[in-house]
């Protein structure tokens, strides 16, 4: 039942043993042509933690990833745990962390003057299907991305405002979308091994 499920979730949080929550960390440094300055939350004594007692959302995954990249590009050696109802992941060392962070910052800057290439849910569904080589589904990664796009379009008024009147198939087959998968979203999957808890296999 829900109380048992919640207790198990809290138990997983405790097993991380990351200590007490700390004050937000002040960040101020230059990377490429960007100056990053502000406060980062989710900081604990022995690592960073982001969690949500619900199914994982694409924007939450990207939020945890962005915070992790900002930390390690500041010179910190840190692990970032991300827990949710359908999985648990941990980010640690990242190959070419500067390039990964710059790709995100460049995409954000581009979104100030044109439709955002950060179609998070479609991109993550695309990669999940691509990596699921044992699936019996006949749906292609493009099919999964299209379904995710349509679901988000129906549920999100802001998404409707941005993409109304657009051709979703054309958008999801564009070089910009496919480039965002390679430069932004695929590295998230490659850098997020599952967390092993006591008496449990990796998920």
Provide a descriptive summary of the structure in words.
With 203 residues, this protein is α+β, with helices and mostly antiparallel strands. The protein is built from eight helices and six strands. It has helices spanning 2-15, 58-73, 97-110, 120-131, 141-155, 157-163, 168-172, 175-190, and strands at residues 25-31, 34-40, 43-44, 47-52, 80-84, 87-91. The strands form two sheets. A four-stranded mixed β-sheet has the order 3-4-5-6, with helices on both faces. Strands 1-2 form a two-stranded antiparallel sheet. Helix 3 runs antiparallel to helix 8, helix 4 packs across helix 8 (175-190) and helix 5 packs across helix 6 (157-163). The longest helix is centred in the N-terminal third of the chain and has 16 residues, at 58-73. The two termini are 21 Å apart. The model has no long low-confidence stretch (mean pLDDT 86).
């Amino acid at each position: 039942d829900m109380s048992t499920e919640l207790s198990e979730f809290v138990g997983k949080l405790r097993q991380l043993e990351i200590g007490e929550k700390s004050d937000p960390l002040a960040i101020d440094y230059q990377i490429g042509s960007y100056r990053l300055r502000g406060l980062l939350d989710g900081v604990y004594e022995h690592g960073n933690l982001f969690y949500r007692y619900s199914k994982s959302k694409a924007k939450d995954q990207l939020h945890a990833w962005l915070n992790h990249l900002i930390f390690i590009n500041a010179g910190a050696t840190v692990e970032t745990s991300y827990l949710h109802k359908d999985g648990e992941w941990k980010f640690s060392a990242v190959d070419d962390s500067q390039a990964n962070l710059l790709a995100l910052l460049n995409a954000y800057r581009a979104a100030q003057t044109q439709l955002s290439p950060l179609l998070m849910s479609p991109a993550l569904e695309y990669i999940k299907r691509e990596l699921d080589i044992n699936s019996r589904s006949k749906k292609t990664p493009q099919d999964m991305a299209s379904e995710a796009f349509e679901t988000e379009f129906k549920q999100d008024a802001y998404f409707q405002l941005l993409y109304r009147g657009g051709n979703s198939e054309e958008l999801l087959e564009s070089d910009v979308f496919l480039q965002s998968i390679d430069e932004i979203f695929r590295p998230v999957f490659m850098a997020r091994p599952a967390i092993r808890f006591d008496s449990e296999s990796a998920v």
